[in-house]
């Protein structure tokens, strides 16, 4: 492995923007100095404002027309029919009567991919195992045309309230919210066709919307997330049907929360990773002295500075037995 | 200590009756009741929450002794033996009723009352104390409210008289999603 040549300029940039030095070390390890510099600069800019149109409430064309008439300029997002970028707006986009009627949801571009990658079908029983505030649950319901069933699990009572509010506003009727710990999901006594696990994470992919993350998490914190995420994923896999599909994602760039979690379940469960057909970088083959399972490259890393959106890691797997 | 959760169960006949009475109030005799496609479930509590649940979900939830927070469409709540319709219940009724008042301000969505001068149109006469569904321009659903003035007195009422009072803490106008939902 070629040794890292620390460069003063990228560390200076990290210091200027308020990052803990260990973060700069690992970004250089993951994608080199040049990309790290681009990432740090990108995080200082505001993310584009994106909305997801909601077919459960109004046809896309009608919503576009209503918003255009109000002075909202929208731009298509390549490959995501329901996603639109708000180029400019004369009205507060998060408080219009159309928003309150659930005609659209404020949701980053990259966070639409996990539900699309899971590709739920109308008649299926789908689990969303870390659900609040419901950006992805409401998207899943839309993809299922409000049929079949979604069981949305959320640990926090307070966050269940915002989940319920978003489900209601978006006109979702096929979803049941359980206030429970996903690590106890086997007690439900049912198996799922598909599961989305948008795991709680350290959030290093969304620093543009939370600058405190530059210095709020230590390596120990990241290891704690790793343990927690691994146990959530293991419990989720237990209730997945044979041949069922599961999408695991985080809005974090840390390998411990992503490739390392997937590696551990690959070792102990009879699952296979599935290729994901979206733009983005492949999962890491190695990190520091660790080499990952050869299939890990089937996972996807969406880097903020390359995709112009939130940082995301997405893995899709199928259960053999 | 083991936590206890509110019971989530099928609604009783009495509860169903209360909900149906409110729906019947809004619907013509001829129109099909939207509740026919759903099962009613109740989440117990000092204020009972009533949900309309589709058949497919209804089947799954039978015998599920788990902490269900919500399911299907929240129709409203029962307190002291009275059913109070909430926004999503009203939304089910909206296409089937003419007890609608159209207003020309968005202020109601932001916790303000509806004044007489805000009225754009109403489809049918109403009495003081009647429950009305409120829509804005483009027929967008804004909420529900109880009229304080009869429609026959509107012409003579002061322009700044309050027609419908705001509800701060109940999900009866869509602005509630902004004030309490996030
Ligand atoms: C990344 S957020 C999910 C965002 C959500 N999927 C969306 O798209 O809007 C993770 C959520 O998992 C919840 N959570 C954390 N630990 C959990 C557990 N053990 N069981 C269920 N939910 C949990 C958190 O409260 C948080 O709401």
Molecular structure report:
The complex is a heterodimer of chains A (321) and B (182). Chain A is of the alpha/beta class and 321 residues long. Chain A has helices spanning 8-17, 21-43, 60-69, 97-100, 113-118, 135-143, 157-169, 213-216, 219-238, 259-268, 304-307, and strands spanning 50-53, 72-77, 80-89, 104-106, 125-128, 149-154, 175-179, 192-198, 240-250, 271-274, 281-282, 286-287, 290-291, 300-302, 312-319. In chain A, strands 5, 6, 7, 8, 9, 10, 11, 14 and 15 form a 9-stranded mixed sheet that branches. Chain B is an alpha+beta fold and 182 residues long. Chain B folds into 2 domains: 7-92, Nuclear Transport Factor 2, Chain: A, CATH 3.10.450; 98-180, PUA domain (Archaeosine Trna-guanine Transglycosylase, Chain: A, domain 4), CATH 2.30.130. Chain B has 4 helices and 12 strands. Chain B has helices spanning 13-26, 55-61, 87-93, 176-179, and strands at 8-10, 38-43, 48-54, 68-71, 73-79, 82-85, 100-103, 114-115, 119-122, 131-135, 141-146, 162-164. The chains are: A alpha/beta (321), B alpha+beta (182). At the A-B interface, helix 4, helix 7 and strand 7 of A face strand 3, helix 2, strand 4 and helix 3 of B. The structure holds S-adenosylmethionine.
């Amino acid at each position: 492995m070629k040794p890292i040549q620390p460069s003063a300029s990228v560390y200076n940039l990290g210091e200027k923007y308020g990052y803990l030095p260990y973060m700069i070390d690992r970004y250089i390890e993951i994608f080199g100095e040049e990309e790290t510099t681009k990432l740090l600069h990108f995080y200082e800019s505001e993310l584009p404002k994106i909305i997801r149109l909601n077919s459960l409430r109004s046809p896309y064309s009608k919503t576009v027309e209503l918003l255009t008439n109000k002075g909202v300029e929208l731009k298509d997002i390549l490959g995501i029919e329901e996603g639109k970028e708000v180029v400019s707006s004369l009205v507060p986009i998060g408080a219009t009567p159309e928003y309150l009627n659930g005609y659209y949801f404020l949701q980053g571009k990259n966070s639409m991919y996990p539900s699309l990658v899971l590709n739920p079908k109308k008649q299926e029983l789908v689990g969303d195992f870390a659900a609040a505030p419901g950006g992805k649950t409401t998207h899943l319901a839309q993809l299922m045309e409000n049929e079949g069933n979604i069981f949305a699990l959320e640990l926090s009572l307070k966050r269940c309230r915002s989940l319920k509010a978003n489900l209601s506003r978006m006109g979702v009727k096929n979803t049941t919210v359980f206030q429970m710990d996903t690590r106890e999901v086997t007690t439900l006594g049912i198996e799922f066709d598909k599961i989305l696990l948008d795991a709680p994470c350290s959030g290093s992919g969304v620093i543009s919307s939370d600058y405190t993350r530059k210095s709020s998490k230590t390596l120990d914190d990241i290891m704690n997330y790793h343990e927690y995420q691994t146990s959530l994923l293991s419990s989720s896999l237990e209730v997945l049907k044979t041949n069922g599909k599961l999408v695991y994602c985080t809005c974090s760039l840390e390998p411990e929360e992503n490739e390392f979690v997937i590696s551990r379940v690959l070792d102990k469960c009879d699952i296979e990773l599935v290729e994901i057909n979206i733009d983005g970088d492949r999962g890491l083959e190695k990190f520091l002295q660790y080499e990952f399972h050869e299939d890990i490259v089937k996972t996807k890393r969406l880097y903020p500075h390359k995709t112009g959106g939130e940082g995301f890691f997405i893995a899709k797997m199928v259960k053999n037995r | 200590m083991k936590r206890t959760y509110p019971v989530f169960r099928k609604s009783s006949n009495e509860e169903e009756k209360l909900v149906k009475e409110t729906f019947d109030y809004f619907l013509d005799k001829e129109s099909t009741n939207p509740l026919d496609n759903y099962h009613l479930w109740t989440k117990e509590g000092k204020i009972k929450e009533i949900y309309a649940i589709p058949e497919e979900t209804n089947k799954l939830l039978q015998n599920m002794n788990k902490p269900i927070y919500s399911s299907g469409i929240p129709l409203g709540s029962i307190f002291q033996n009275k059913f109070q319709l909430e926004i999503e219940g009203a939304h089910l009724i909206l296409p089937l009723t003419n007890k609608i008042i159209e207003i020309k301000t968005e202020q109601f969505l932001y916790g303000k009352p509806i004044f007489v001068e805000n009225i754009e149109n109403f489809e049918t006469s109403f009495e003081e104390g009647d429950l009305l569904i409120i829509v804005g321009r483009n027929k967008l659903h804004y909420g529900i409210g109880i009229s304080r003035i009869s429609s026959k007195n509107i012409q003579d009422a002061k322009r700044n008289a309050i027609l419908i009072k705001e509800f701060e803490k109940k999900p009866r106008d869509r602005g509630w999603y902004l004030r309490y939902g996030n």
